[in-house]
Amino acid sequence: MNDYYKQDKKKKLKGSLTKIFIFLLVFLILILSYILYEKTQVSESNLSQQNVTVERTTQTLEEVKENNKTVTEMISEVNNSVVGISKVKNSGSSIFSDENITSLGLGTGVIVGENGYILTNAHVSGEKYSKCYVTTVDGKTYDGNVVWSNADIDMSIVKINQKKLQVATLGDSNNIRVGETVYAIGNPIGFEFQRTVTSGIISAVNRTVKFEENEEETYMEDLIQTDATINPGNSGGPLVNADGQVIGINGVKITSAEGISFAIPINSVKSVIQSFNINGKFDEATLGVFAFDKNVLGYIDENLNFSEGIYVTKVNVKSAASNAGLKKGDIILSIDGNKLERMCDLRCYIYTKKPGDKVTLKIERNYREMEIEATLKRK
Question: What is the model's pTM?
Fold first, then answer.
């Protein structure tokens, strides 16, 4: 009985040891399998990451190519809206001509209305009702009539008898930032270099430049400063952002320094352009006042000091401002509740009005604030 019990116990112990051995063997096999699996996964992951890196690099190169292509296409599209402007027909086509650019009136313009409206500088086209000649991208030359001109901001609109022209896209010059890329397009030197493109950045905004003309000092304010190369024939041509939108009209270059040129912000004439495109005319209203902001007054009188508004330096006789009682030395703080920081702000707002419209001016006189109402007149 005892021998039987001992043999049975040995069999059970042997069976248990066999089970433990098998369990341990299976466990070891599973561990080895897991380790091999992890190594395989790491290798595949590294290979996958390498493929992703290669793919990303390829995508980046493709994106660069696409961006370059976009810039090229963008410039090509804008060029279709750029025109040459001259005061003399079929003349001055060569830089070797004895006549210079000034006497020929060579310049540039940009199409802003499909029915033949072209934006340019006033000094390029001439004053309102004057004539000029416009050469489009297909090489054809048309008679141009100046339908609007403002020498204070050096801008004008020329009309040619053509339809279905390619119109440039206008941007928002209030949202431009210093350092962003811009392109200047124009006809430097002569028409054989027409639609020359130069690039640069926006160097500064809200610049004021003083000029001496006919022994009188004049000022242009709210200008865009750029280092894009601009030559005399570029005047009136578009300053374009990276999206192909016109944000300014090239007009001024500092001849005593390199890389300093200026453009007039496109927002200053958007209302004028819109009126011509919708109504075929612009019934210009005027307040009859000229004012400077605090940045300009340093040129005029160092003792003048104010924190907001625009300082009135001239009130035209029998103008809307004069009839309303506005005086030289007043500071206009707002118009119809819209705060004013620059003369451009006032001018742009008046451009949205019509002759006969009433406006409310909030002014400061002798450190006292008051409101006056003015009825705008026709210019």
Answer: 0.75
